[in-house]
Write a sequence for this structure.
């Protein structure tokens, strides 16, 4: 599941307006000739966006040509236009504040992968709405990259729909605290993967930066910012569904999307036709702005790296050692060494330091998507021991394009990070604004998990946020939905433990938890035909798996290779052609699924 930020380069007093313009132009010119190595707030979110990925003809790529959303005239009904590759796009007008439906408006960017059957066909099953997580993840990017594979899993009877939630990406008004991309890049340049204690100042540095972000957010607010929250987004989803001519929602939400889905189900229990929440967060913990229940299985997920490497042998795991405890010890030795002495690295596309913070973030990122990351991580660690840090450094390079300077403001609306902070801080309870409270929280949290140094910014980062009214929905998550919901949890999910899925299920009558026996964040992080067949059956026929169902996966994160270098995995002899297509789509997603997270 489940970060952002900025600096203001202002000159006051004796400096003239013309001088301020010259200073800013100078800064922009410098940036044009400076490689900004990474925007670290994306280290967990947007994990994938590879330039070349996929199997069996399935590929995940960022579109080379962005759809001109700003030229698409918004409407209260869908006005679909062709966009990207075999997709359709539209901008939908919604109330900025549903408590004032005739007041100011917002626009939501919606994208569709059309069903193969017309709406009046008996085969047509309606739209399935997707949310990729975050908060702040772009549903447009998600559908462009993964929509075809999701469509293969669900079947051709469904329109596959996603959207940029209010405040995000191409939806307006956006959460944007900086006056320029250059300013945003400069502010984020010195962050090292969001480690709260990664400096001599410790927690105080993270706390101080949060005060600046909150101030910039307040200064940029035109009255819209307080309405960028999950409550209003859930209402947007109902508006989208009704604009399709439907009365009830079909929804599949991942990570933070589980909070959004649970919120919708609790607010509109009679509007649920099919609803899956996958990679389930504890919504009560989220709305309390604690972020304290996410890391219960993080070490368990890391253990699968150790044990999987042992089982795979040196042929498939380059960081192999005879025992899992040996691999764990070797990794600890590397982390301790980097804490004392970072390594300077220059690659063909970036440069920077391979330090403790960068490696710690890379490891956590690898735990999100082990079927994509474990083998490269093992190779990077092995190369580092052999004296070559470049392999490991490249794993930590940003998945979003590096910042590029332009003399003109970009016309195309696109994804920026500011919305993540806006949503999580608006949603959650107010966080005390003093440094002492931040330090006390961190000291308690770090005793519970070694990963708290990465995760604590979820709460501390809201300590300077404007004190907007907290009159939006924050629970309770108790409902008798018009159709039972399905919750999916992995046995070793690093940031949404299976415990949370079971807890959240207790509030929704007749709901069922489907367990996937795998590491990774959300079901799509691992290849399980069993899981996705249950997903399809649920959407097509409304059939829930039996309580207690556990689905296995088809291979390991350290698969063996054939003589021609291809990955080995079993294809069932009795598979139909449809099942084979579904199988290949699932494997492709496990290698490419772009999981979105806050920092």
């Amino acid at each position: 599941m489940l970060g952002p930020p900025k600096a203001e380069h202002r000159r006051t007093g004796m400096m003239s307006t013309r001088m301020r313009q010259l200073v800013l132009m100078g800064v922009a010119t410098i940036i044009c000739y400076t490689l900004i190595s990474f925007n670290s707030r994306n280290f967990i979110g947007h994990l994938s966006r590879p330039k070349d990925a996929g199997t069996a003809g399935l590929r995940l790529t960022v579109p080379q040509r962005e759809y001109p959303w700003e030229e698409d005239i918004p409407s209260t009904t869908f006005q679909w236009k062709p966009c990207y590759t075999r997709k359709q796009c539209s901008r939908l007008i919604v109330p900025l504040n549903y408590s004032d439906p005739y007041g100011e408006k917002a626009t939501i960017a919606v994208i569709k992968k059309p069903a193969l059957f017309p709406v009046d066909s008996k085969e047509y099953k309606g739209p399935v709405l997707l949310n990729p997580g975050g908060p702040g993840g772009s549903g447009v990017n998600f559908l462009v990259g993964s929509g075809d594979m999701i469509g293969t899993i669900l079947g051709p009877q469904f329109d596959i729909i996603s959207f940029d939630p209010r405040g995000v990406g191409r939806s307006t008004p956006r959460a944007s605290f900086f006056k320029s991309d250059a300013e945003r890049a400069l502010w984020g340049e010195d962050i090292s993967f969001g480690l709260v204690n990664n400096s001599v100042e410790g927690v105080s540095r993270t706390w101080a930066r949060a005060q600046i972000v909150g101030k910039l957010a307040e200064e940029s607010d035109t009255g819209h910012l307080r309405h960028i929250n999950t409550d209003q987004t859930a209402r947007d989803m109902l508006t989208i569904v009704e604009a399709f001519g439907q009365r009830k929602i079909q929804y599949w939400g991942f990570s933070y999307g589980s909070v959004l889905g649970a919120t919708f189900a609790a607010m509109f229990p009679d509007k649920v036709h099919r609803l899956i929440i996958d990679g389930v967060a504890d919504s009560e913990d989220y709305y309390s702005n604690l972020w304290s229940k996410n890391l219960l299985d993080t070490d368990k997920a890391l253990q699968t790296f150790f044990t999987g490497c042992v089982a795979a042998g040196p042929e498939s795991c380059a960081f192999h050692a005879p025992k899992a405890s040996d691999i764990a010890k070797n990794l600890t030795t590397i982390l301790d060494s980097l804490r004392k002495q970072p390594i300077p690295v220059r690659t063909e596309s970036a440069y920077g330091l391979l330090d403790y913070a960068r490696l710690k973030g890379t490891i956590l990122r690898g735990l999100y998507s082990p079927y994509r990351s474990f083998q490269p991580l093992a190779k990077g660690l092995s190369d580092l021991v052999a004296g070559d840090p470049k392999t490991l450094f490249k794993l930590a390079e940003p998945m979003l394009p590096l910042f590029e300077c332009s003399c003109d403001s970009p016309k195309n609306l696109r994804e920026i990070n500011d919305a993540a902070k806006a949503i999580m801080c608006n949603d959650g309870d107010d966080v005390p604004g003093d440094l002492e409270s931040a330090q006390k929280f961190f000291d308690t949290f770090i005793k519970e998990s070694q990963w708290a140094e990465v995760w604590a910014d979820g709460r501390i980062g809201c300590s300077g946020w404007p004190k907007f009214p907290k009159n939006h929905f924050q629970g309770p998550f108790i409902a008798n939905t018009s159709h039972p919901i399905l919750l999916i949890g992995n046995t070793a999910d690093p940031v949404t433990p299976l415990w949370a899925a079971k807890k959240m299920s207790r509030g929704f009558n007749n709901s069922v938890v489907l367990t996937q026996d795998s590491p990774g964040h959300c079901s799509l992080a691992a290849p399980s035909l069993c899981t996705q067949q249950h997903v399809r059956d649920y959407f097509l026929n409304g059939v829930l798996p039996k309580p207690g169902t556990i689905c296995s996966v088809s291979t390991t994160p350290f698969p063996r290779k054939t003589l021609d270098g291809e990955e080995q995995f079993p294809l069932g002899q009795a598979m139909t052609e449809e099942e084979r297509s579904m199988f290949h789509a699932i494997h492709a997603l496990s290698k490419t699924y772009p999981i979105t997270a806050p920092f």
Observations:
- The CA atoms of residues 126 and 245 lie 9 Å apart.
- Residues 1-47+150-157+175-561 form one domain.
- The radius of gyration is 23 Å.
